[in-house]
């Protein structure tokens, strides 16, 4: 499949989706929106892919929406574009919307934030499961300084990650946040020198791809994204149900055997 505004490649059981408008700091476009969603679905359906990395080409991750697009945007587009077919009718509707579909992808998504991450670029970074950033990266919600509001579910997701007070600070002020502060507040998981970011991110991704059971990652990811909608009792009951399934699985036997035999595991691909 060919793409216009992104690059897509698979190697070593890792799918890499690269926002590819480096001359515009990977500013977000409707084409990019469609292509990222399609690429995520492609990676989700590929049995050879166990981990997904989302990053940007050049100096930035995504500098936000393309200003030329914003100048001509139709206000009715926001409502119309959210009416999209869901990935899975059996999954929560919360994860079936225009941008909040990342949790419905049954594979871990790593945001490799190589530079400026702003506005809708920050929205997409937040929907990744973990975020590794260059120590030179800068972050901003941007919306309030453009006369906009907290868009595309960021008002729900951002407090989940950095807490209520930090989320209000970042959304109300739309100030620029340096990488070290982003790490302190939990906005990103890890920081690396820019020239080490790719190496370290892919080392982590390869470890997941080679040494962790895909079925375990799929269930754990679903558990964590379901928890905000559950009581402790509900989460425990669900965990007990999944535990019984995992104990009867070939992957559990393989996980124990590989540990005892001191060899790499050979987990199933589903």
From TrEMBL:
The answer to whether keyword Lyase applies is: yes
Gene3D superfamilies named among the record's database cross-references = 2-enoyl-CoA Hydratase, Chain A, domain 1, Lyase 2-enoyl-coa Hydratase, Chain A, domain 2
Task: List the Gene Ontology MF annotations in alphabetical order.
Answer: enoyl-CoA hydratase activity
Q: Does Cell membrane appear among the keywords?
A: no
EC numbers: 4.2.1.17
Alphabetized UniProt keyword annotations: Lyase
Membership in a protein family: Belongs to the enoyl-CoA hydratase/isomerase family.
Q: What is this protein called?
A: Enoyl-CoA hydratase
Q: Which organism is it from?
A: Rhodopseudomonas palustris (strain ATCC BAA-98 / CGA009)
